[in-house]
Amino acid sequence: MSAADPRHQFGQVSEMRAEQFLIAKGYRILDRNVRLSIGELDLVADDQGVVVFVEVKGRSTDAFGGARLAVDHRKRAKLSKLAAQYLAQRRWSDKLCRFDVILIQGQASSLAQIEHIPNAFDVTEE
Questions:
Q1: Is there a contact between 59 and 104 (Cβ–Cβ < 8 Å)?
Q2: pLDDT of 12-30, one tens digit each?
Q3: What is the largest CA-CA distance in the chain?
């Protein structure tokens, strides 16, 4: 998928909107689009001392359900592994962490709906 691909551009805009949303809620963004050996983390933030791994899903319509349906068990397992790799690289074994999901729904950025699920899932669910 090239940078000129409309789906890629929509994904980038969705991640930017999610980042702005989190900053407005008081989160501090630590990293964006972190590439690791097994995949990529969309956003990593700090929420009052808790490391938050944020999965961002952009949807142009509501045809595929909400944020809870956007991250299935395979994606949760992969995010858990990515988070462990991220924490290990930084030697942050003592940090509290959680997983949030943000769904950006709608094409027009000014009309897009944002659904945020803090602590969307636990690693122990797998």
A1: yes
A2: 888 899 999 999 999 999 9
A3: 41
Q: Could you tell me how far CA 70 lies from the centroid of its own chain? A: 11
Rounded to an integer, what distance in angstroms lies between the CA atom of residue 47 and that of residue 44?
A: 10
Task: Indicate whether 1 belongs to any domain.
Answer: no
Task: Give start and end residues of each alpha helix (H) in 1-126.
Answer: 6-24, 67-70, 73-89
Q: How many domains does the chain have?
A: 1
In which domain, by residue range, is 73 found? 6-125
> For the whole prediction, is pTM greater than 0.70?
yes
Give Rg (Cα) of the chain: 14
Please report whether residue 74 resides in a domain. Answer: yes
